């Protein structure tokens, strides 16, 4: 009965369905067909005549009729299927709409999550740069104060010498000294409200006036003229300015070559003095001692610059700048880098026995107290040279002709001093890191499956804390004047020590439940010590920089989570695997394998757990974004360290 109703519906549909020519043409393009029955202008008579063109062809009419009936039945079946299928279209459409709405909501949630992470990243960068900016401001103000005091000392001494030379009529010496005094006085224009500065300025003006009157009187006395000067003559403008210096300019290269030789001898003397006097004494009051030779070098540079600029502001100044660059590099190489303690085994480095045997006290440290202080002193000296080289570049640009300022560039020399700073910090990190290695080796060799009760912190933790308390206060006190580089030392040590600690933690296998609890206690103790590392052993307690705290918390929390997973029972398997993924958010099969080894499970048990782990991993979304988002779920300590280094380089570049 239902089929008859459907057939009637189809017949009625065919009766009323009249397609327009455009629709018919579109159907023919989408579903091309050579069958005459599919044509819009189908003619039944012509079609029958085509099937039976002759009277003899009527012999197979029954076969043709059967084929047509079979085709009709197939078409009826297709029509019936389509008609019945249309009854579910509405429900499918609503379901598709709901799924689309859910997908939009999920997409909105992901976009909001990305926005929140971006805001957190921005806040983190602000926290990192805030401390650096504060230290830079303090350093800039301190440098300005020291420079101003040096200028004041030079000005006071120069004024006294100027007055004495004027009285003795030493005009040759006065010519050089007066220009230098005037250059120094320019720095004090904004301090003229201070009575002492104003008094020195008035003394300089008085000396200039007296000098001018004295020179004119000497000329009048030497070249008297008849019938004239009862009036006191006014000092005329000097029409000879620059004439003498231009005459000497082609011959100033003799002076440049002489300064090249003098500076070479000066560097050699610095090297000899350093070897004779030895490294500077430890300084725990005002920070690391800056090598006195660097101040001597820049004082000599300033003297040469003033002398040369008085004679010429052209090409000789460029040649002098080249000489300055040459000996700045030599100073960095021979005095600073050349005197850094060596890390090779031939110069007292680590030996195999020192790595396999835990030593007591300071015997495990590679560098002595004097060597640590020397590294800090070289670092402080390199920072002073870096800042002073920048000031030297600015002064040279002020002295030369405007057309030559672009040829004054000391960036390469400043980069050389920055390299010395980085090498010094790396040496300090390697020393403390190497001192802690025997303790970590001892930790990995302990029989953790035989631990019967949880006690105080293990001896290897005490050893690590001892080395930290020995080295860090010395480094901090000797880098008190360069606080930002002490912060860099702390960050680099954390980025080196924490991944190494986790690596040795994986070597502790098998571990019993009590052993895991003891390791968790030890890990927490190390975490607290590392968080307190910037101010350890100091009477002044300072809050550690946020950038350093974040690194320690993230790295040591990962170590704690590893031990908590080890402590968890491995049955039921699904609960253990889900707990691992939740605590560590680590989709790395190799890490999961190490956890199973720490628990002491057999390979037969591990195979089923590994298979379940692969099945329980969250499926990444399709497309390249899915794979990238999965890799960002749980960055390893090495990846985190790389990110911090990139961030440090970016901040250093912008500063």
Automatic annotation (TrEMBL):
Pfam families: VPS53_C, Vps53_N. Residues 517-601 form the Vps53 C-terminal domain. Residues 616-642 are annotated as: Disordered. Residues 97-138 form a coiled coil. It is found in: Endosome membrane; Golgi apparatus, trans-Golgi network membrane; Recycling endosome. One of its GO terms (biological process) is retrograde transport, endosome to Golgi. The keyword Protein transport applies. One of its GO terms (cellular component) is recycling endosome. Its main location: membrane. Keywords: Coiled coil, Endosome, Golgi apparatus, Membrane, Protein transport, Transport. Residues 41-228, 233-274 form the Vps53 N-terminal domain. It is a peripheral membrane protein. Residues 624-635 have a biased composition (Low complexity). Component of the Golgi-associated retrograde protein (GARP) complex, also called VFT (VPS fifty-three) complex, composed of VPS51, VPS52, VPS53 and VPS54. Component of the endosome-associated retrograde protein (EARP) complex, composed of VPS51, VPS52, VPS53 and VPS50/Syndetin. EIPR1 interacts with both EARP and GARP complexes and mediates the recruitment of the GARP complex to the trans-Golgi network. Interacts with VPS50 in an EIPR1-independent manner. Acts as a component of the GARP complex that is involved in retrograde transport from early and late endosomes to the trans-Golgi network (TGN). The GARP complex is required for the maintenance of the cycling of mannose 6-phosphate receptors between the TGN and endosomes, this cycling is necessary for proper lysosomal sorting of acid hydrolases such as CTSD. Acts as a component of the EARP complex that is involved in endocytic recycling. The EARP complex associates with Rab4-positive endosomes and promotes recycling of internalized transferrin receptor (TFRC) to the plasma membrane. Belongs to the VPS53 family. This is Vacuolar protein sorting-associated protein 53 homolog. The gene is VPS53.
